[in-house]
Amino acid sequence: MTNDARSPTITVEDIRRVPKVLLHDHLDGGLRPATVVELADETGYRDLPTTDVHALSTWFRGGAHSGSLVRYLETFRHTVGVMQTQDAIMRVARECAEDLAADGVVYAEVRFAPELHLERGLSLDAVVEAVLDGFRAGSAGTPLHLRALLTAMRHQARSLEIAQLAVRWRDAGVVGFDIAGAEAGNPPTRHLDAFQYIQRANGHFTIHAGEAFGLPSIWEAVQWCNADRLGHAVRIVDDITVDPDGKAILGDLANYVRDVRVPLEMCPSSNVHTGAAPSIERHPIGLLRRLQFRVTVNTDNRLMSGVSLSSEFATLVDVNGYGWSDIRWLTLNAMKSAFLPFDRRLDFINDVIKPGYAELVSAESA
Questions:
Q1: Residue 228 annotated as part of some ligand binding site
Q2: Are strands 240-242 and 248-250 parallel, antiparallel or unpaired?
Q3: Which terminal residue of the chain, N or C, has fewer Cβ atoms less than 10 Å from its own Cβ?
Q4: Would the annotation count 181 as a binding residue?
C-alpha cells in the first residue's frame, strides 16, 4: 500500500541491497564516461565534444535533459561511435553487467541495436556474440542473470532481419525483440512482418510506444502488432480522466491495457528528460500504480539520465511516498513480465524476490 507521507528512512543504499528487476535498459545508453573517453582513444574516434571525463558526463546529461526525444537521441552518436569493435562492445557489455550487479539487480534484460555497430566491418552475429560474451564475463560470480533484447531501428528497414537474428540467438542469451527510435512518422505497423515472424517462432517482443507520440502509437503496438510489453507508454494517461473527486475514468484503450495486464516499461527520469512527462511529480506512474496497471520501473539510459535502478526507486519513494511494499509490488510486476519461461520466473519470485523483501514489508506494516 502506498504511503500518504514520504518515507525518508528508505535510502538509495537500502534499496541497493534488495533484489531488483530491470526490463528496459539500453546498452549504448549506460556506458561509464571514462570508458567512452578511453574507447575513443583506443579506436580512433575523434568526434567527442570533450575528452575530460567530468565535462563529458555533464555534456551527456545536458543534451539528454533537453525535453526533446530527438535531441536526447542525438547523444547516442558518440556512445555508438566508440562501440564498433568486438573488444569495445565486449567491454561495454561487461561493465554494464558489473554496474547492474553492484546496484543489486538480480535479473535484467538489456537491449541494443546490432545494426548500429557495423561501421568497421562486424557482422550482426559478431555484434551479438560480443555482447553476450561481455554479459557472461561481467555477471560471473554475481547473483545477476542478464539477458539481451535485440532492437531494430524503426526508421530503417532491417527489422525482419533483426527479428530473425533474435530467434537465431535465443538459446544463447537473447530473450526478445524490440523496435526503437523516433516514433513520429515511424509507426509500429511499418514493422508488422518482423513482429509476425517473432510470433510464428513463439518468441517475445516489446515495442517503444507512447513516449514521444500519443495513443495511436500504443493502440497500433497492442492491437495491430500484439506486443507482449510496451516501452514507456506514458501517453496511456491521455485515455484516463480524473474527475474533481479523484475518481479515474478509463477510456477503451486504457481499460484494455489494464484488463489484459500489458506490462508498461516506465522510466520516470528519462520520461521527464525527453519531455514525455512534465516532471517526476506529475509523471503518470503514480496514477497508474494506484489504478493497478502492470507498471514496472526502469532506467532507460543510465549515462544520459544519470540514474541507477536504485536511484529511480529512491526518487519514487521521495516524490510518491512509496514504501517497501510498493517497491516489492513494482519488482514483482517486472519479474512477472520478464521474457523468461514461467517456471524460471516463479523461481525468482519465490526464492529471491519475496524472501528479499519479507522482513522489510513485515516491519513496515507492523
A1: no
A2: antiparallel
A3: C
A4: yes
Q: Mean pLDDT across the stretch 328-357?
A: 98
Q: What is the pLDDT of residues 237-259, one digit of tens each?
A: 999 999 999 999 999 999 999 99
How distant, in Å, are the alpha carbons of 51, 52, 142, 305, 329 from that of 354? Answer: 44, 43, 19, 29, 10
Query: Which grid cell sits at 46?
Result: 575523434
Collapse the DSSP code of 300 into the 3-class scheme (helix H, G, I; strand E, B; otherwise coil) and give the result: strand
Cα→Cα distances 120→99, 127, 156, Å: 27, 11, 19
Is 65 annotated among the ligand-binding residues? no
Q: What pLDDT, on a 0 to 100 scale, did the predictor assign at position 185?
A: 86
Q: Please answer whether residues 338 and 109 qualify as being in contact, where contact means their C-beta atoms are separated by less than 8 angstroms.
A: yes
List the chain domain ranges.
12-365
Residue 47: count of CB within 10 angstroms of its CB: 9
Fold observed for domain 12-365: TIM Barrel (3.20.20)
Q: What is the pTM of this model?
A: 0.96
On whether 208 is known to bind a ligand per the annotation, the reply is yes
Active site residues: 211
For range 168-175, the mean pLDDT: 98
Rounded Cα distance between 231 and 217, Å, is 11
CA distance readout (Å), 68 to 53, 72, 95, 277, 280: 24, 6, 28, 11, 16
- What count of other Cβ atoms lies within 10 Å of the Cβ of residue 310? 23
